[in-house]
Amino acid sequence: MATEAEPAAGRTSAVRDWASGCLDEIVDDLAVLVDTETPSTDPVLLAAGAAVLTGWVLETWTGSTATTLGAGPGAVLQVDAPGSRDGTVVLLGHLDTVFEAGTVAARPFTVTDGVARGPGVFDMKAGLVVGVYAVAALDALGVARPSVRLLVNADEEVGSLGSRSSLVDAAAGAEAVLVLEPGAVAGTVKTARKGVGLWTVTATGVGAHAGLDPEAGASAVHALAALTSYLAGLADPAAGTTVNVGVLTGGTRPNVVADHARMEIDVRARTDAEAARVTAALAAWRPADPRVRIEIAGGWNRPPWSTPAPGMVARAEAVLASLGVAVDPREVGGASDGNILAAAGLPVLDGLGASGGGAHAEHEHVVVADLPVRIALLAGLIAPDGS
Ligand SMILES: [Zn+2]
Q1: 351 alpha carbon to ligand 1 midpoint, in Å?
Q2: Which residues contact 173 (CB under 8 A, 6 or more apart)?
Q3: pLDDT tens profile 243-254
Q4: Which of 272, 302, 332 corresponds to the end of one domain?
């Protein structure tokens, strides 16, 4: 309806223009976050990083309050910015990065030719910046919005095992969960993510001399080699199911029948049905030689997320259209904590952080000029009916 679409379009471009007007400040804030190292594996640096993040959000969001849910590696920072109408939108992010301490000293935050680089800049320090500035923009422009609850964990890159229950509890009842994981281009939204299953299989066989007494042995290595072929056969590329035996070790010497072997498996599935099929097939497998004992540990670290919240992609498309940017919905193989909250029944849209590329790699980067568009997109999703 033109009567509603036009003010909305004006609002969206006002947010973009507001963000463009303070782009230097936005980049300065991003620099501080990137240069504050937060490896998933370093509790001291994570605590210091959480303090920096908390101070910055509280200062930027007038009237907001912060609390910490849980403790230790699973601690979740929650910042609430009360809104001018009922309802709560959750912004979901993570503070941790895959880069070890000392990476910043080797390659600190830089901006060259409009491209920002530095450890964690894309995944997802710039996403946190997009989230914080989207709310700041709405408030600076006096746009009505629901309450916003920012949830930031620090164990996302290592599976969110300690934080997931806090995330689910704190997001309960949200009208939308907007995930600040990176996008690719200015119009990217992520509408589905495969689930990730992780298993470790250990095999215990019977050692023996490979030449003198081979029948006395039962090879754990041969058993897991057979399992590797079996697992490869479970993949179904057309259905989106992949199976990767990423680690396979065992045995001691060529002339010894191996009495031990171990493998680590990564399975990706687009649907719950496929996840269940692979899980059941793995559980049903038995070694050909019954003297080999196997132990299987693991499961679905994040379940498949295949259904974006109804209407949210259309909403993103409308917001972007008012900026002259085409929406670019993507289904991806990597999971995020959006999978966990979608499985909890919440309406999720993901990939709303910065545009750029190279996640988890040295060439990780963010396109600075797109940040105002990404901020405007997120603001339009937070306050679809704001005026
Ligand atoms: Zn991430």
Answers
A1: 9
A2: 88
A3: 999 999 999 999
A4: 302
